[in-house]
């Protein structure tokens, strides 16, 4: 379901294709800046397993853990996956706070979801000394997570479009931790001088964003989206 939130006028995140070597990734991006990777993996088989019908058939009765869509995401709620898809998966209400918005974006039971993740082909690059962990999510248009930071990782869109906003570690963005990304985009973003605007871009299916350690980032799903992240811990 397409949302009404626009894409950015111009993507300001650097892009790279399958010609990017591991040594060049380490040299240019791993520790310094984000990059969007295209054509580095083929997840068409995984995408075929992530349709609404396939996911409901495989995981409908199993509980999923939802988090509040604020910066700290402290509150957790467990509901059957089918209930989330049929009743809670809807466009973001612009008037609701992040603490009142529930979002499925990562607390996966690996015993139950593991067979699905076995079909996912992760990006071919790693950070030395880290090991990967998957985080799978499904969310409605206009939803997202406001600014936060953690260790490095990749995020791939399987269905839909996801808009990203990123700041380097030394440039703390101006935001309220309980304001949704949609509200921030509508109220704060237009007031920012060009020099204070984040790096931003919209990811489409098959594209992968790499974000370095401690980079601030916020996300906004422009459509009902399915996505998977590979966190390097």
UniProtKB/TrEMBL annotation:
PROSITE patterns membership: JMJC
One Gene Ontology cellular component annotation held by this UniProt entry: nucleus
Database matches in Gene3D superfamilies: Cupin
Source organism superkingdom: Eukaryota
SUPFAM superfamilies (alphabetical): Clavaminate synthase-like (SSF51197)
Every JmjC domain range: 99-233
Protein name: JMJD8 protein
Lineage: Eukaryota, Metazoa, Chordata, Craniata, Vertebrata
């Amino acid at each position: 379901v397409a949302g009404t939130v626009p894409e950015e006028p111009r993507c300001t995140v650097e892009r790279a294709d399958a010609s990017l070597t591991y040594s060049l990734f380490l040299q240019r991006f791993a520790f310094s800046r984000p990059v969007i990777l295209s054509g580095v993996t083929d997840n068409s088989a995984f995408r075929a397993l992530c349709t609404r019908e396939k996911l409901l058939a495989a995981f409908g009765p199993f509980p999923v853990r939802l988090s509040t869509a604020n910066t700290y995401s402290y509150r957790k709620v467990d509901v059957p996956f089918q209930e989330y898809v049929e009743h809670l998966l809807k466009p973001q209400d612009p008037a609701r706070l992040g603490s009142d918005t529930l979002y499925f974006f990562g607390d996966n039971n690996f015993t139950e979801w593991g067979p699905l993740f076995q079909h996912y082909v992760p990006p071919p690059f790693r950070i030395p000394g880290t090991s990967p962990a998957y985080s799978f999510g499904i969310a409605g248009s206009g939803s997202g997570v406001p600014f936060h930071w953690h260790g490095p990782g990749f995020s791939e869109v399987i269905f839909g479009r996801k808009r990203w906003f990123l700041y380097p570690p030394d440039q703390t963005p101006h935001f309220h931790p309980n304001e949704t990304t949609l509200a921030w985009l509508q109220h704060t973003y237009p007031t920012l001088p060009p020099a204070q605007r984040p790096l931003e871009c919209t990811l489409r299916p098959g594209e992968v964003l790499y974000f370095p350690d401690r980079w601030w980032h916020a996300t906004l799903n422009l459509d009902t989206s399915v996505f998977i992240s590979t966190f390097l811990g």
